[in-house]
Amino acid sequence: MKKITLLFLLIIISACKQENESYSMYGLMIEEFVHSSGMLKDQIAENISNDSLINDKSAQLYHSLTTEYLKYLDNTYSELINKIEEPTDYNGELSNKELINDFFFNGEKYNEKATEFITKLESYRTEILKLIDNENLTNRVRSELNTNYIQNREGKKFDYLNYMYKDLPLISVLSHMKYREKVIIEFENDFLKNRMLNE
Predict the structure, then answer these.
(1) All residues at 6 or more sequence positions from 195 whose CB lies less than 8 Å from its CB, including other chains
(2) Helix (H, G, I), strand (E, B), or coil: what is residue 110?
(3) At what angle do helices 57-81 and 112-129 cross, to 10 degrees?
(4) Is 130 helix (H, G, I), strand (E, B) or coil?
(5) Phi first, then psi: what are they for 71, rounded to 5°?
(6) pTM, full prediction
(7) Are 12 and 25 in contact (CB under 8 A)?
(8) Do the beta carbons of residue 140 and residue 187 sit within 8 Å?
(9) Of residues 80, 115, 116, 105, the one with CA closest to residue 167
């Protein structure tokens, strides 16, 4: 199911690089990601206060790191969405590609916001990997939260954000942020379940 969701997201992102494309599907995706994340957060809140984890320093630290990073991601999302007047007009300002380019880039290079965005993600990934002792989860975190160069089919390398966000409409970047949030919450939920199983 996770692979299907990711494939669907990539297809939508690719389609939205075309002109005059309707972006309303992104609104549905964001709603789905927010709904899934909310249910997982409820599960995490229940697990983190479970007797077997309440005194587990690794579990509590992981939860603290995730909470802090998601707060940063949510603040970035809010900063972007607050730049527009009509957040439900998917073919209006939400389809504007210059908003993202101006927010994260100076020409082809990262600006201060982009550098901070990458640094926060890399720091979060590094810290949670110190706590994870499950090989499958480790590999998933490394793969999903990777910020290295991305190579396209022609073999050309791109900086992470240049490939993921540059010249894309605002709504697609907002969707990706909500997708990223959902994945991070899934990782924490899996981490906590593994801790409880190993108690």
Answers:
(1) 52, 53, 56, 58, 59
(2) strand
(3) 160
(4) coil
(5) -65, -45
(6) 0.85
(7) yes
(8) yes
(9) 105
Ordered per-residue pLDDT tens for the chain, 199 residues: 555 455 555 555 555 444 445 677 888 888 899 999 999 999 999 999 988 888 999 999 999 999 999 999 999 999 999 988 877 766 677 888 899 999 999 998 999 999 999 999 999 999 999 999 999 999 999 999 999 988 888 888 889 999 999 999 999 999 999 999 999 999 999 999 999 887 6
Q: Which of 107, 146, 152, 112 shows the shortest CA–CA distance to 129?
A: 146
Distance CA 189, CA 52 (A): 15
Burial of 100 (0-12, 13-18, 19+ CB in 10 A): buried
Cβ–Cβ under 8 Å, residues 34 and 174 = no
Return d(Cα 166, Cα 91) in angstroms, integer.
18
CA distances to 8, 10, 52, 189 from 4, rounded to whole Å, are 6, 10, 34, 20
Question: Residue 6: how many CB atoms within 10 A of its CB?
Answer: 13
- Please check whether residue 44 is in contact with residue 50, taking contact to mean a CB–CB distance below 8 angstroms: no
Residue with tokens 């990997």: 129
Structure tokens at 104: 């994260």
